Amino acid sequence: MLCFNWFLPSDTQRAMGEAASIKSMIDTMKRDHSIDEARVFITGLSAGGAMTSVMLATYPEQFAAGAILAGLAYGCASGTAEALECMAGRSRSTANELAAVVRRASPHRGKWPRVQVWQGDADTTVTPGNADSIVAQWTGLHGLSATPDVVDRVDNHPRARWLGDDGKALIEQYSITGMAHGVPIDPRRGGGDALGAAGAHMLDVGLSSTLHIAEFFGI
Q1: How far apart are the C-alpha atoms of 58 and 50, rounded to whole Å?
Q2: CATH code assigned at 22
Q3: Is 114 helix (H, G, I), strand (E, B) or coil?
Q4: For the stretch 56-67, what's the b/e string if a residue is b when 16 or more beta carbons lie within 10 angstroms of its beta carbon?
Q5: Number of structural domains, the chain?
Q6: Residue 75, domain member (yes or no)
Q7: DSSP state of 182
Q8: Total-model pTM
Q9: Residues with Cβ < 8 Å from 31, sequence gap 6 or more?
C-alpha cells in the first residue's frame, strides 16, 4: 500500500497521475542528457513491475523494451480488492482481451516494445500465473503464437522465447525455480565486479537478472 498505485485508474492512464509523472521524469532526462530516444528502457520489481506494465501500455512509443519482475499485466485491476485478486492469480482473461486493454491505453499503432518477464515459481506475493498473463498480453499485441519458438534453460532455470521475423527475441519469459518474491541475482558471477549482493528481495539463485536484462536491452 506504500508502493506505486498500479491498480488505480487515476494513476495508470496516459497523461494522468503517476504514469504522467514517470513520463515527465523520462522526458527531463532525455532533454537534459541528449539521450537517444531509441534507447530508452524500463524495468521494475513487484509494484514497480506492475508499473512497468503500465508505462509500456500507456506510453509504448517511449520504450524500446521493458523488463517486468514479479509484476502484473496492465489493466488486471482497477481497485484495491481487484489488485489483491490479481496478485493471487484469480484474474483470468484471454490474450486478445489483455492485448485489447493495452491498445485502448494509447493512440499508438506502431511497433510495440520488446518485453522480458521474470517470475519466481515459489512466489506467494505475486503468484506465477501473473507472468503467464503478461506474456499472453504481449504475444497478443505482437501477433505471436501462445507457444514459444524456443524453450531452453539458463543457469538451470527455464526460459521461453518468442522470436520476431529477424530471429531476435520479442518476448522472453524466465521462470526461476524455487524463488520467492524478489530479484534473481548471482553475486558470485562477474569476478571482481560481483553482480549484486543478496538482501531483502535480492535473492541469490545463481542467475543474474541484471546481466540478462542488459543483454536483452542490448546495452
Answers
A1: 12
A2: 3.40.50
A3: strand
A4: bbbbbebbbbbb
A5: 1
A6: yes
A7: S
A8: 0.96
A9: none
Backbone angles phi, psi at 217, to 5 degrees: -70, -25
Considering 10, 21, 24, 46, which one is annotated as catalytic?
46
- Strand 169-176 relative to strand 183-185: parallel, antiparallel, unpaired? unpaired
10-residue mean pLDDT series, the chain (219 residues): 92 98 98 96 98 98 98 96 95 90 97 98 98 97 97 97 97 98 88 77 95 96
From 167, 174, 207, select the one nearest 189 (Cα to Cα): 207
The one-letter amino acid code at 48 reads G
* Vertex 139 angle, CA 6 and 118, to 5°: 55
pLDDT score at 191: 58
Q: Which amino acid is at 42?
A: I
46 is catalytic: yes
Kind of pairing, strands 157-163 and 169-176? antiparallel
Domain presence at residue 2? no
Grid coordinates standing for 130?
501473473
CA distance 160 to 174: 7
Residue 65: which H helix or E strand, with range? strand 65-69
CA atoms within 13 Å, Cβ hemisphere of 206: 9
CB 56 within 8 A of CB 116: no
Backbone angles phi and psi of 123, in degrees to 5: -75, 125
